[in-house]
């Protein structure tokens, strides 16, 4: 790494020139290839493929996912307002079954997964769909990080185990919720099972939340508690409606997963907004960096599978459990299938005019959900193996210059190897170039004006694991 970095430093201007020549030559090829970043990704920095992660992904089994979904559907309804204490029907039965399943995974991992019920009484007033005091319980399984300097850094992956029929407040109707969102919960459960057998530097939280259909109630509770406790959540993924591969538009697509990532941060302050209006950055929120990281990281593990980044917080008329995390200033994105079928979401189970309505298991694709679980697990593993993304990254604006001066705070991980500066044209959706700069906390990019490119910094460890990119804030005087 260090030797490579010094080579990069010495030849940096020549390399930059070469990159631009190569970029010009390759541009038509790149545009002819599939949408997204793969063809135009940061040159000189191939994403790593760790053999133990690849092995772990092969362990993800669609049969376990099918079993979980059929079991969750068997509880009849999982509406948050349904029975809490009936062992056969209602959300309480689902909650207890999920706790038992996470505990089983924990036993198989030698007890490393810590399972708890995060329950609370939601009072009426805040959420219109909660009209009387209601017990809401998140099922939370934590895999503690194995590296002291990284264990306080937490990555959260969730699905929601509550369901609804046509009416969100009907606690009695059948609400199988096979896709919305037993699919996401089953994927999370399978991730917990395979990932808890490995060691990661940082901590991973596998979670099944309740109250999503009542207004993201469980996720709000978790995110607000985390903020209050000062928990350092490095990233959050929600998996919601990740199981259907035949859209209402008739399109069958088993090789695409959408990742919804907001641009302007939900939590942006007025001061941050002023900076953004002045110098840009609306395409460089922590959520966008996270989405780019997922797309780039998953590629070598799942060639041909398209992680399709969508530049918006969520779909029209819809929200999800990532939003409470975004509101607290955490980087969070939502995964969803490529083409939805609204006949099988939020519908009473019935046949009408020869059409079957309802969120039933026959309309989900278990093998596809296994792929979704692999996308999540590959990205989570990369995040939890890599150093933290650089903090306090600044672009210095003390002087008017055609160079670009960057600085950042030193990371504290013992396996930290150094940093990479990345950049792209301001019109490019993905990072296109990178250069290793060694284990330093400042770097000047000679001959490249900060006015003409976007820059970022990421950390790299000795095994080649890279953090997501941090986008710099300006620092004057
Ligand atoms: Zn949902």
3D architecture notes:
The protein is of the alpha/beta class. It is built from ten helices and 17 strands. The chain has helices at about 1-30, 50-60, 60-75, 90-110, 180-195, 215-230, 270-280, 285-300, 320-325, 365-385; strands spanning about 115-120, 135-145, 155-160, 205-210, 230-240, 255-260, 305-310, 330-335, 350, 355, 395, 405, 415-425, 435-440, 440-445, 455-460, 475. The strands form four sheets. The chain has an eight-stranded mixed β-sheet, sandwiched between helices. Helix 3 (about 60-75) crosses helix 10 (about 365-385) and helix 5 (about 180-195) crosses helix 10 (about 365-385). It starts with a helix and ends with a strand. The protein binds zinc ion (ZN).
User: In which range does the helix fraction lie?
Assistant: 25-40%
Task: Using the CA coordinates, give the radius of gyration.
Answer: 23 Å
Strand segment tally: 17
Separation, N- and C-terminal Cα atoms: 33 Å
Unreliable stretches: 1-40
Main beta-sheet strand count, sense and barrel state? 8 strands, mixed
Report the β-strand fraction as a percent range.
15-25%
Distinct small molecules bound, one entry per kind: zinc ion
Count of DSSP-assigned helices: 10
Short key terms for the protein model shown above:
alpha/beta, eight-stranded mixed β-sheet, disordered N terminus, four-stranded mixed β-sheet, binds zinc ion, single chain, 477 residues, globular, 21% strand, 31% helix, 10 helices
Could you give a quick summary of the protein structure above?
The protein has 477 residues and is an alpha/beta fold. Helix content is 31%, strand content 21%. The strands form four sheets. It has an eight-stranded mixed beta sheet with strand order 1-2-4-3-5-8-6-7, sandwiched between helices. Strands 15-12-11-17 form a four-stranded mixed beta sheet, with no helix packed on it.
